[in-house]
Structure formats: C-alpha cells, structure tokens
From TrEMBL:
It comes from the Bacteria. Residues 171-260 form the Peptidase M20 dimerisation domain. InterPro entries: Amidohydrolase, Bact_exopeptidase_dim_dom, Peptidase_M20, Peptidase_M20/M20A_hydrolases, Peptidase_M20_dimer, Xaa-Arg_dipeptidase. It comes from Streptomyces venetus. It holds the Pfam family Peptidase_M20. This is Peptidase M20 domain-containing protein 2. Belongs to the peptidase M20A family.
Length: 401
C-alpha cells in the first residue's frame, strides 16, 4: 500500500539534500571507532543546534553521546530519531553509519522545520559505540530513553527491508595464562597459553554440531604470543556467541565457557573470561510503524520487502531498546544484492550517489513517520498496543530482567 508524503515535507528534505551528502561524506572520510567519535558527535550536535534543537552533550556519562530536543507548544509524546556514527576498526564506514547519522539528522531537521508547532517532543539521540560497545544499552540503563514513547532509525544494506530479525549476542574475551619457557631448549618447563586457546577453538568447532542452527559462535585470536621460540604465557581470544533470543543465548554461553575451562584443564593453563560489552538483545521490530514507513517509501518509489526469518541480520544494541519501547530498524539498499556487510565493497557503497539517494528517500519517509507519531494519537496507540502484545511478560514468580 502506498501513502504519499506531504509535499512540504518532501520539499524540505530536498532542500536539505546537499547537507545530507556533505555530512555523510565528511563522516565517511573521518572514520572514528566506538566511543572515539568526537568529530562526528561535534558535527552532528552542531548542525542540530543550528537548526533550533536544544543540545545536551556527553549524556549518560559518554563523551560522544548527545541528545537534541525540539519541543512543541503543547504536551504530547516524545519520539526519538536514533543516530549511529561509529566506524569499524581498520576498515572505516563499512557498515554505513555515516548514512544513518546524516539521514536521521535530515529527517529530524525536516520534520521540525515543516511542523514547528508539533505536539510533544521530537528528540534526536546520538548513540555512540554500536560496533561492540553497546552504547544504546548504556544510555538505556542510565535513563536517556525513560520518557521516549517510540524510537526510529534505519540502516543501509544490500536490500531494502521493512524489518529484519537480529540475533542476541554476548561479546567474550578469554585470556589463557600459561608458563613461559624456551620453546626448543626446555619446552617441558612451559605451559602454552596458545595450546589452551587452540584446543578451546577446536572444542567450539566440535560444539557446533550440537547447537541449534540459529546459533553463531565465531572469533579471533587477538594475541597469540610474542615470539615463536618462546612458549606463550598469555593468549587472548575474542569471541562472539549469538543466538536467536536472549533466553537461548543464556543457555548457550555456559556451554562455551565450559569448553574454555576444559581446554585450560587439558593444557595445564588457566583461563579468565570477561564480557567486553553489555549483551545485545534480539530485535523486536514494531510492525505497525514498519508498515507505515513501508507505505511512505512505496509512495516515493521504494518498495520494502517484508521480514523473513530466513534472512537474519547480525546483532545490534537497538535490540535492547526495542524490547523496552516501540522501535523500528528498516533497511535500505545501497549496493548490489548479497554484497557482504563489513567489507570494502560495502564501505565504498556507503559513499556513493546511490547510497545518498537511498538515504534521502528513507529520511523523507522517516520524517513523515515521526510527524504521524507526534500528531496522531490513534496511530501511536496502535503502535503501543502491538508493542505490548509482542514483548513477553514475566509469569508469576518471575522478575522482569
């Protein structure tokens, strides 16, 4: 079903198109990794302040997080547009967060410019550290989202989707400790931390046959030793453990940790384990909002595919937000289908004219959705009703997590 975007809103986004492109390219050429996005945060906050938003920097104790609010003259709901702007280590904006930031900012500025007397509060939340830092989770825990009634954002990808399931994830660092020794002269005096890590990764491979097909366990040896002729006394493994739901993840992680303990026991080493980020929850896409934004993009000539359980994404901290309040995270195609995320081709696509056209379309639709959420109480009630029905509630005797 197509739904037209109001002409004045389309015109406002069109006028902001040069800003979107310039900001996107600026962030793309200045990639900053999680919680180091000082340049990006300053650029985004500065543009929002210039557009009349009230900006607060360093919120939730995170130096590169911010909020920007545009308050209407009468009470009403609070609707948040979420921005991401961190890049990947070594490869830059291969996840397209430059487009999320530029497109989301454009949507918010256009909505405020066209409907300055909207009810309630239009809020922009700058969320750092999505790539393994859990910035949204920290901001959620520290109260930034307490008064938010609905949150919206979009993500670039290899296809356009109304919604996409994402996996819950646990970020683990496993540090094996051994005893250093000369690897040729007296290896029997040593205990190899590298052997412990190697055996652990072999155990994880053996475990794969006995976990559900929804599970993903993958990682790297972040530190293997200092020299080939020294028995390594410390080896670090960074591992992601993923599952379709947080409950399934809670059941899988202890099995992975048991494999680490067994590998340490077998090799005469010890192992320390730590979670390096808050656990990301699965995504609970609000389909009432999803169908509305899909209707708007269709009216702009962009069809969003319906969600499919056979096409999961990775993991994102928007999942934790989406199980606390209604949220959406649609995808917009910026490259050839099946282009892998977190790759050089995706990085190059994120700076292309095609990407900026796609981000402009999504920004226009998202601005229209935001104004619906602020100004149509019946629509927001339907959004909330679907959210209430979709989030599991604790049974008698259980405490909410």
């Amino acid at each position: 079903m197509k739904q037209p975007v109001p002409a004045d809103l389309r015109a406002a986004v069109h006028e902001l198109r040069p800003l979107l492109e310039q900001l996107s390219l600026d962030l793309h050429t200045t990639p900053e990794t999680r919680f180091e996005e000082h340049y990006a945060a300053e650029q985004l906050a500065g543009r929002l302040a210039a557009a009349g938003f009230e900006v607060s920097k360093g919120v939730a104790g995170l130096p590169t997080a911010f909020t920007a609010t545009h308050r209407g003259p009468v009470d009403g709901p609070t609707v948040a547009v979420l921005l991401e702007y961190d890049a990947l280590p070594g490869i830059g904006h291969a996840c397209g967060h430059n487009l999320i930031a530029a497109g989301g900012l454009t949507a918010a500025v256009a909505a405020a410019a066209v409907r300055p007397e909207h009810p309630g509060t239009l809020m922009v939340i700058g969320t750092p550290g999505e790539e393994g830092g859990g910035g949204k989770i920290l901001m959620l825990e520290r109260g930034v989202f307490d008064d938010v009634d609905a949150a919206v954002m979009f993500h670039p990808g290899d296809r356009s989707l109304m919604a996409r399931h994402a996996l819950a994830v646990c970020h683990l660092r496993l540090t094996f400790h051994g005893v250093a020794a000369h690897a040729a002269k007296m290896p029997w005096d040593g205990r190899s931390a590298a052997a412990g890590a190697q055996l652990f990764l072999t155990a994880v491979d053996s475990l794969r046959q006995f976990v559900p097909p929804t599970a993903r366990v993958h990682g790297i040896i972040a530190h293997g030793g200092s020299a080939p002729n020294v028995v390594p006394d410390r080896t670090e493994v960074d591992l992601f453990v993923r599952e379709a739901t947080s409950a399934a993840l809670d059941a899988l992680v202890p099995r992975v940790l048991a494999a680490a303990d067994g590998a340490a026991l077998a090799t005469g080493t010890t192992v320390e384990t730590a979670e390096t980020a808050p656990r990301y929850a699965e995504r609970n896409d609000n389909l009432v909002m999803g169908r509305r934004i899909a209707a708007y993009t269709a009216g702009l000539g962009l069809e969003l595919e319906p969600p499919s359980p056979s096409n999961p994404a990775g993991s994102s901290d928007i999942g934790n937000v989406s199980i606390k309040l209604p949220a959406i995270h649609p995808y917009v195609q910026i490259c050839a289908r099946d282009t892998p995320s977190h790759s050089v081709p995706m990085r190059e696509a994120a700076r292309s004219p095609r990407a900026h056209e796609a981000a402009t379309t999504m920004a226009t639709a998202m601005a229209a959705l935001v104004l619906d959420l602020l100004g149509d109480p019946e629509f927001l009630t339907a959004v909330r009703a679907e959210f209430d029905a979709s989030v599991p509630r604790p049974t008698a005797g259980q405490e909410p997590s």
